Amino acid sequence: MTALAEVKEKAGGTVPLARWTEGYAPLPGRPDAYLAPDGTPRDSAGGAWSRLLDHLGRLGEPEMMARFVSAERHIRDAGISFRVYGDQREHAWPLSSLPLVIGAAEWRDLSAGLVQRAELMEAILADIYGPGDLVAGGYLPAAVVAGSPEFLRPLHGVAPPGGRYLKLYAADIGRGPDGRWRVLADRTQAPSGLGWALENRMVLARAFPDIFEACHVERFPAFFQAFRDGLAAGAERADPRICLLTSGPYSSTYVEQAALARYLGLMLVEGDDLVMQDGRLHVRTVSGLKRCDALWRRIDADYLDPLELNPASRLGVPGILEALRNGSLVMANMPGSGLCESGALEPYLDGIARRMLGEPLTLAGPPTWWCGDPDGLAHVRDNLDALTLRPAATPQRGAGRDALLGPQTLAADRDRAVAALRERPFDYVGQALGPLSTMPGWERTDAGLRLVPRPFVLRVFAARTPSGWQVMPGGFCRVAERDDVDPTEMRLGIRAADVWVLSETPVETQTPIQGRTPRVRRLAGHLPSRAADGLFWFGRYTERAEAVIRLVLAHLRSVGDAVVTDIAGGAHAPTAARIRRLIAEWGAGSAPNLPTAALAQQALSGRTAPGSARAHIESARRNAAKLRNRLSGEAWRVLADLVDLLSLDPGRAFTESQLSGRAERALSHLAALSGLAHENMSRAAGWHFIDLGRRIERAINTCDFALALADDEATPESLGVMLALCDSQLSYGSRYMQGVALDPVRDMVLLDPYNPRSVAFQAEAIARHLADLPPLAADGVPEPHCRLAARIVAEFRSGEAADFDAVGMARVESELERLADAIAGRYFPAGPQAARPEKLGGLG
């Protein structure tokens, strides 16, 4: 009997557990998180891994997998995704069903080492940008500092507002050859992964709440609340406005940034949302400029200020460094802190720790030699085949991304490395990295599941809070699906694992506001102009999709191929031809002479048709991707279902009945999406802009329908289709008993203020929305877009059905388009003619 089997027998292990662990053994030369070198569980019977696996064994394999299928469905429905670096496609978040578990005692030791290392990085930055004693005293070569592109000379001598260079420190760690934790890389620039750790925890705790509770897993809320307090510490105002600066929705970590902004109550902004005025940083909102007191940046420091740093940057804010100099802005992390990610620092860290902290490092990095030092260069040259050669000043992103040379590389790479060391040796470090440690992961076999060792990298976080450094009780773990894949960064073939720190005693449930009474608020804060733009177009695209779907349904229900004669016919063209002409004009169908079913399929899901319902839903989803912190999980589920419904296989011919069913279900989902907006969103500015977009688009589309189907030559059939497109058949039938007629139909779909589908109803709603939005000035004079909306409302209030012939309807449609442009010019940050909010006054 093996040592592992003996432990399982003594612990009373379940049958699934025995089968799962049968044959499990560490990979040669690699330390394992579960097993010690002698084959026994590292934490012994009753420890962290044993507790988790025993609970999973009692749950049973079918139930365990069913729960994880549910978790994967939640990930898909909630739109949790990521982008591979350099790839614009989104991939579903690959969450592992097995967390990495760590016992409380081991975590305490690891946390102490992490805090010590964070304090050391803070001290190094304070010295480098301050007195420079480390260089002067010979503890750190001057070339390591001055030669790094992360050393920002404009900030030398600038004290960080709030007193700290680092608000968040992270380290990638793994087990070394002796089984002890060691640092693989420091993350001090703009550490990512905190949001992924939060998402992992929410999904896995939702899937396994009983096991999560039974294992006494440490919670996150207290850490996040302390981290938020740390972001605010040092701000000039008692109730500071905190923003999270992102590079935008195409960032590989945008989803986690949006999750963090939503969870912490931060304003998610891009560089275009910010502007310097009077020496202070402000956010462009629909209410004018609003002061930003603290900024958590998630872009590299070099891109922050094109005036003083990288002039090619379009991500930052011109002049933002001035706010740091005058102390009006707290920033996390302080620009220039990326210097501590340099591998050239590692050989000197222990000596610096002894000098500045009075103690040696307890959490060390890999053995490293800087090639700018003669002794280090000699060692690297002598041992080149056994070391990994890396750029000294480039943040480590993984062996496949920045390693110039690693063990067992090709001869051509070795020649290139030798030449690089000869020309510029000070640009490189040599590291004895060794293989990554492993943790258990699932592998499916004919007999069921079994555990196999998988390489992993764990990222742990420490936040600077008002009471000192606080370590997050967990982390962000990346696990490779194969032994030869480097999990140092997220990409295909890598899974993310939640990290469970198991307490010896039950964990008290905590909430983000525990121990404090927040000020009562009824509004969510000011809406950035960019977010208003995205919400407005989200509303317009969903309404466009609904209009196309209704047009397809009307075509399928009322006409067939036999009545289609001439799409370019005159006033007496049959209704089918009128509908087909409208489909073509909207770009929903590029081949109007197709059979009815084929044209309907193209209009619903055509990939090459820019006006298809699917194209509009995907455009709505792209806009929603910019608003992840403002849309609910239910809205994401509806959008995901809509994309699935409208993603028809172009190689398969669907029948008219099948297409009608798809279209009807899609309309139901769109109604649900509208209901979520009306019932779940607070009546703040964001809701106004979503509904404004829908109302304007619906009014324009109805005018288009009327021009095509309710002109002076309209037939009873075309008028019936007009009522169907406006979902007004029941209202019309209850009001008029003698059948359809031109003037009553026009009145109902254009002028009736009681019909929620009429143009007049939309105009009234638009005017109310605009009246509720913040004005440009407090002089009582209506703004241009409000005056235009008032004229449109007055035209419908005083008009009669006979006034709205083709000329009258075309004029109204043109005025609605002008109104949409006027709203964009007033509120949105795009276009040379936009009314930039910095001109509006009202700073706050």
UniProtKB/TrEMBL annotation:
Bilayer-spanning residue ranges: none
SUPFAM superfamilies in alphabetical order: Glutathione synthetase ATP-binding domain-like
| Record domain Circularly permuted ATP-grasp type: where | 99-480
- Residues forming the DUF403 domain are 527-828
**Gene3D superfamilies annotated for this entry?**
3.30.1490.270, 3.40.50.11290
Task: Give the InterPro entries listed for this entry.
Answer: ATP-dep_Glu-Cys_Ligase-2 (IPR051680), CP_ATPgrasp_2 (IPR025841), DUF403 (IPR007296)
How is this protein named in the record?
DUF403 domain-containing protein
Taxonomic lineage of the native organism: Bacteria, Pseudomonadati, Pseudomonadota, Alphaproteobacteria, Hyphomicrobiales
